[in-house]
């Protein structure tokens, strides 16, 4: 029987994956090793009971009594804390989805790679913060990474068996998020509630706000650079408000292969789950006649400075990805807490990158987790200071 683990099961991507596992037959058809979550203990316990997981893990040690109580009378073991998350990720499973949000996904993701497992990766921060380390670990252990971010799944599918050497350009699309058509001067007054809506995708709050600021796309550009080993000038972003075309791969002979589909994460998750085969998924069929038209536009780096920062990060390499990601997470926390305006998030990230560039060792890509965590902590400190 195939075995699976979901890290971040209680989130938006985790719920979509859970839905697919239940539809695939649930506990009768597959063995669930571990499910992890945060403070949503009731839901985590319910999911673990449904799939008869070996262990359910909350990231928060203070939630352990609540999790134990919620699992009472079941065969599911309860565990809590960061070390328990990593231990759960290290348990052998045929397929492990990382759907944790933020740099917190890095250590558990690395644990999957260290055991040579198959890592279905929604947690793009893993590649942005530690691309070199992550790819080198996978190569050393023979682990496989399957992209779950929709644009990267789309690139992966559009590439097929084509040689990367024949690729002239990869384009990922962006809806433009909540503020695509706002007058620029209004952005400084944007509220958290306004930034937390997305025209096409239902996602967790953090990635939704990152879509409005385009930091999500900045992370995705770096993710594509790291995962596919593409030169920065071969990666482009295109505004596409309908979110039907997810990515385009242009070849040196002028042929362009696009990946289209309804904006539903169950496609990308299910593709990774069934890979290398394909199987039916509960995703709406694409009806282009009903859709009528698709539109595209070039993104403005004035409106979305995050896109410029992504290019600067790829050009400088070293620890820049770690710093951008961590400073962005800090700035996002502060925006959500109401202590920072929407446009100031990019200023804080820029300040952290500038400060880090003057530090010894910045030009070296981190090759171990401790070095990544050092730069991560440094960037959060600098970003917080730049804000106060
Ligand atoms: P979410 O906020 O809905 O869920 C996050 C999950 O991670 C939850 O289970 C939560 O309990 C857990 N978590 C949060 N903080 C944690 C911590 N410190 N330690 C351990 N676990 C923690 O997020 P989401 O929207 O599902 O996104 C998850 C990841 O997938 C992100 O990296 C995001 O960028 C990526 N992604 C999401 C979508 C989407 O449609 N939501 C699409 C593409 C990529
Ligand atoms: Mg995406």
TrEMBL record:
NADPH binds at residues 10-13, 38-40, 123, 125, 204. It catalyses: 2-C-methyl-D-erythritol 4-phosphate + NADP(+) = 1-deoxy-D-xylulose 5-phosphate + NADPH + H(+). GO terms for biological process: isopentenyl diphosphate biosynthetic process, methylerythritol 4-phosphate pathway involved in terpenoid biosynthetic process. Residues 260-381 form the DXP reductoisomerase C-terminal domain. HAMAP family: DXP_reductoisom (MF_00183). Belongs to the DXR family. This is 1-deoxy-D-xylulose 5-phosphate reductoisomerase. It comes from Paracoccus suum. The lineage of its organism: Bacteria, Pseudomonadati, Pseudomonadota, Alphaproteobacteria, Rhodobacterales.
